[in-house]
Amino acid sequence: MPRTLKPDHTLFFTTLALVVLGVAMVFSASTVIAQDRTGDANTFWIRQVMAGALGMAILFLIMKLDYHVYKRPAVVFTLLAVVIGLCAVVFFLPSVRNTHRWIQLPGMSFQPSELAKLGLVAFLAYFLENRRGRINELQTLIPVGVIVAVLGGLIVLQRDLGTALAIMATAAILLYVAGLNTKWIGIATLAALPLGYIAFYFLVFLEPYRWDRILVFWNPEADPRGKGFQILQSLIAVGTGGFQGLGYMEGKQKLFYLPDAHTDFIFAVVGEELGLIGTFFVLAMFGVFLWRGLRVSSRAPDLFGSYLALGLTVTVCIQAFLNMSVVLGIVPNKGMPLPFLSYGGTSFVVMLTAVGILLNVSQQGEAAGRSLGE
């Protein structure tokens, strides 16, 4: 009797470890601020548990769904159209926190830009497989460039430059792996010089809050009680934790010192309470995630599955790398959550959905490998 094919257990348990740690850290980081904002100390972590339960349910459902369904043109282009439509609709809705990123529904809200990550990867995997051997033709590069520019532009207009840069980086990596010629890389680099200057001028220099982030990145001590406050408090939190940390729930920076402690700066709380051991554990888990994701991509039964797995893996790991880099003061603040750990329902559910797809690709990769071995 043949054995039942199973998905990548290492990838699954790595994700589960991050999810469990994330819920625990959101509980630790959010109780005081939740009490202050809502009158109930349990508000945020309970919402995170509910989002995690939904995400895990979707993960198990998606894991059983043949990933080739995303290869159907009707699915790919419908998903892409819905994502672009939702990213445009937000501009006609009331702003939330002075930005147009969220769609508010009764009892919940979500960010279309998070869904854009899945939609773009599915489109690129489908399109690049169909254009195999013709990656360097304009008939390939122009459609990809248009789709990436439209999604990236809409997300930039939502005042979310970090997510736009992340999806552009994912697209660039997929194109390179698909066989993009160094000639086009050189042309893109040369074209990027004047365009990059123009983009920097309009998107950073003329946007006071973004220009302030650049100045703060270079010298946060210049305004320690103002614009440099957040990054300095983040570094204090990480530094205070030392090797072993102050102990779970014993952190002090989350007590109204570190803004966004339970969201974008949850990694600083990990550093303060769990120390170098905790931060190294998180870094190691994302390292394992990258390793297993690349392994799934290399063993996928077809090119579509390989591109799909690579794109999803890169999406998660780029976001994790950028978030941790911001918390440690390595790059300017991007306002980007740490996958599986930061508070935020949309990101939580989307990241777990991505893992569900990865697990299905890994399962079918095992099936293809066994077929070849028989």
Helix content: 55-70%
Gap from first CA to last CA: 14 Å
**Sheet of most strands:** 2 strands, antiparallel
Order of helices and strands: HHHEEHHHHHHHHH
Record the strand order, biggest sheet. 1-2
Principal-axis shape equals globular
| Rg, alpha carbons | 21 Å
Strand content: under 5%
Q: What count of structural domains? A: 1
Average pLDDT reading: 86
SS-derived structural category:
mainly alpha
Q: Report the count of strand segments.
A: 2
Uncertain ranges: 370-374
Count every helix, treating DSSP H or I runs of 4 or more residues as helices: 12
Could you please describe the fold and organization of this structure?
The protein is mainly alpha-helical. The protein has one domain (9-369). It is 70% helix and 2% strand. It is built from twelve helices and two strands; from the N terminus they run αααββααααααααα. It has a two-stranded antiparallel ribbon. The longest helix has 33 residues, at 266-298.
